[in-house]
Amino acid sequence: MEQILIQPLTRKAFQPFGDIIDTKEAENFTINNGMCQRFHDLTPIETAGEDARPLINIFRCQPYDLPLELKMVERHPLGSQAFVPLSQNPFLVIVAEDEDGRAIHLRAFLTEPGQGINFHRNTWHGVLTALNEACDFLVVDRGGEDNNLEECHFSEPFLVLAP
Amino acid sequence: MEQILIQPLTRKAFQPFGDIIDTKEAENFTINNGMCQRFHDLTPIETAGEDARPLINIFRCQPYDLPLELKMVERHPLGSQAFVPLSQNPFLVIVAEDEDGRAIHLRAFLTEPGQGINFHRNTWHGVLTALNEACDFLVVDRGGEDNNLEECHFSEPFLVLAP
Fold first, then answer.
1. Complex prediction ipTM
2. Which residue from A21, A57, A114 is facing B56, i.e. has the nearest CB?
3. What does the buried/exposed string (b/e) look like for B73-101 if buried means 16 or more CB atoms within 10 Å of the residue's CB?
4. N or C: which end of chain B has fewer CB within 10 A?
5. Per-residue pLDDT reduced to its tens digit, B17-63
6. Would the CB atoms of A86 and B82 count as touching at under 8 Å?
């Protein structure tokens, strides 16, 4: 089985696929008489389609075991999808490049505690993957009528594992 | 000083002002081969104005002491504003009704651990009010050019305190 080694999640490595949602290096200013720091506009919410609108949801994800057999990835052609953990548990972020509608060059990242991410519209990614224990995530994605899901199934699964 | 006694935050009591963002009583369904429960579309994101768009931000709020002297509330005529704590610390939610552009009938609620809230557009509310320690919040609100802030200052502050 082809192996994918899990790497630390960094802005530079993740930049082609989406944004990291945290306070590091983020533009910020002070509001509310100095009592609150606003880390502003951290990532774009994309919602294409005439009747589309952004949704706020909570996903409760059961934990996956490592090494992980990865059989498919998916993408959302009409919207971004942001996942912000409501705990300090790191989670696994799998992304891929596209070649003629197929996912190639897969990569796997482990978040730092508290880091969230936003997948840009139409970016191949693995499903939400908690580790160690069940975790809740605040999710901002797209609602609307048109089909917003494509899947890419692999004839041979990949093995995702810690380096 | 007129007193406002802090009450527990419940769906019923908060309903005129906004939505509670948590998993209790929320519509949900299972995705990702049974590994994830999606608590779906928990509250509307409102963004009025031609160039308006929803923003994802993190607010880092310093803690306030109780009893709290409340000198003003504010509202956002063009957008909702959602606050979801990235910790389990309860926070204080102050809201008011409107009468001819002035905030009246103030109420104060204490969240349960993990509860977030979304203020409906144009709802009078106190600024984000962490308690006990500095807390981070994921905030979904509105970006755009038009003025989206109104303030109501009180000639006599209110005293917000635990019952």
1. 0.97
2. A21
3. bbbbebbbbbbbbbbebbbbbbbbeeeee
4. C
5. 999 999 998 999 999 999 999 999 999 999 999 999 999 999 999 99
6. no
